[in-house]
Amino acid sequence: MTYRLHSHDKLQGLIIGGGDDIAPGLYGGNDDGKAPIDPDRDRFEIEMIEHALHTQLPLLGICRGAQLINVVLGGSLYGDIRGMRKRTSNFRTPLPRKTALGANGCRLAQILGSERWRINSLHHQAIDRLGDGLIIAARDLDGFVQAVECRQGREIIGVQWHPEYLPYLSAQRRLFRHLIECALRSKPESLDE
Question: pTM, whole model, 2 decimals?
Answer without folding.
Answer: 0.90
